[in-house]
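Example S7 (structure tokens).
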């Protein structure tokens, strides 16, 4: 059923693009209900996908050892409100799923020429993490809207929205702090600098180098308490070494093909995205989103085996997903070498398939009627 729902959702994105091509923003929002509904069929009605799912299901239905008071105040308010509507946790997962896809539909409101492909790439690349990091993605979706508001100089509204995100998951504050400099400084527009930094960080990502940071991370976690119990629980030396630094991830199904295509995914984005911003600079906020994608690729090299940092890196990468769509759609206009373009397409397809493969590897892909 999941693959069927996925095909339906992806199809709805392209139909949505056609329907809203020249529509008003009001109609754009009203018609978005259809792709949102199909996304919710794929993810909102899922059952038992991973540890987080069961944890939040038990929390919602009052079966958890943790109390709702252990979480951020706005998250508490959301759960309490939804409990008034239904005793079943299904409503919680439907709302969380709707928030995730609607936020990206909102971000792409001025990029309608690549709307279908942009939403599809976001859907596929984020499939696994969106299914697993439920509360984080609720906060992340709100943050994406806050970022869009900031880009349109609506500072007060942006601050309020970002505060809402923090009150859902305090850990999102790290991502927010890291993205703030991008509004003021143009840090990743130099192609040679970007390539050099990407290669260096790719080398630094070797596990033996990462392990040098174990004590630093341990001390940092014990001095911070972002998100209450949700972050401080990592402040154990064994957990730092095994899960945060990634040595326990060594048996994850990441073949040589994953290593190659993951590297190409970021490397070619840096090169081809730079060509895009030079030849098509009038695309809505394209320089900003390109830099976000570059930083996501660079930071992702270091964070690839690091659970907490990896959450932050993918927050940048997913936000810039639609830049990949622009490169694909306008490849001829960008005069991309056919061989390079094929490698780029292969890397994008492989990473999307890998995300779907993780779902089938780690979850019993069931729905509430199973």
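Recovered sequence:
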């Amino acid at each position: 059923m999941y693959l069927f729902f996925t095909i339906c959702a992806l199809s709805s994105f392209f139909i949505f693009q056609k329907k809203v091509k020249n529509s008003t923003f009001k109609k754009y929002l009203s018609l978005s209900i259809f792709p949102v509904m199909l996304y919710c069929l794929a993810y909102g009605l899922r059952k038992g996908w991973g540890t987080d799912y069961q944890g939040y299901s038990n929390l919602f239905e009052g079966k958890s050892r943790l109390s709702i008071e252990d979480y951020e105040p706005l998250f508490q308010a959301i759960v309490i409100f939804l409990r008034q509507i239904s005793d079943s946790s299904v409503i919680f997962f439907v709302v969380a799923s709707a928030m995730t896809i609607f936020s990206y539909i909102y971000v792409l409101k001025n990029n309608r020429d690549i709307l279908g492909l942009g939403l599809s790439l976001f859907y596929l690349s984020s499939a696994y993490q969106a299914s697993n990091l439920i509360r984080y993605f609720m906060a992340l979706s709100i943050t994406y809207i806050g970022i869009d508001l900031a880009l349109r100089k609506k500072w007060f509204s942006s601050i309020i929205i970002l505060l809402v995100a923090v009150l859902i998951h305090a850990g999102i504050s790290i991502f927010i702090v890291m993205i703030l400099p991008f509004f003021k400084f143009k840090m990743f527009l130099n192609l040679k600098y970007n390539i050099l930094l990407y290669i260096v960080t790719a080398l630094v990502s070797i596990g033996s180098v990462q392990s040098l940071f174990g004590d630093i991370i341990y001390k940092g976690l014990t001095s911070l308490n972002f998100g209450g119990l949700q972050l401080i629980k990592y402040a154990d030396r064994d957990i730092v070494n095994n899960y945060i630094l990634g040595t326990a991830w060594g048996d994850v199904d990441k073949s040589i093909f994953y290593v190659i295509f993951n590297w190409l995914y970021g490397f070619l984005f840096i090169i081809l995205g730079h060509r895009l911003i030079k030849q098509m600079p009038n695309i809505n906020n394209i320089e900003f989103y390109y830099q976000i994608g570059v930083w996501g690729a660079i930071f992702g090299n270091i964070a690839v085996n690091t659970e907490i940092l990896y959450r932050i890196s993918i927050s940048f990468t997913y936000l810039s997903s639609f830049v990949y769509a622009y490169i694909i759609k306008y490849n001829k206009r960008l005069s991309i070498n056919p061989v390079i373009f094929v490698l780029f397409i292969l890397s994008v397809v492989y990473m999307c398939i890998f995300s779907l493969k993780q779902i089938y590897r780690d979850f019993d892909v069931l729905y509430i009627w199973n």
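Notes on this example. Residues 100 and 141 are 5 Å apart (CA to CA).
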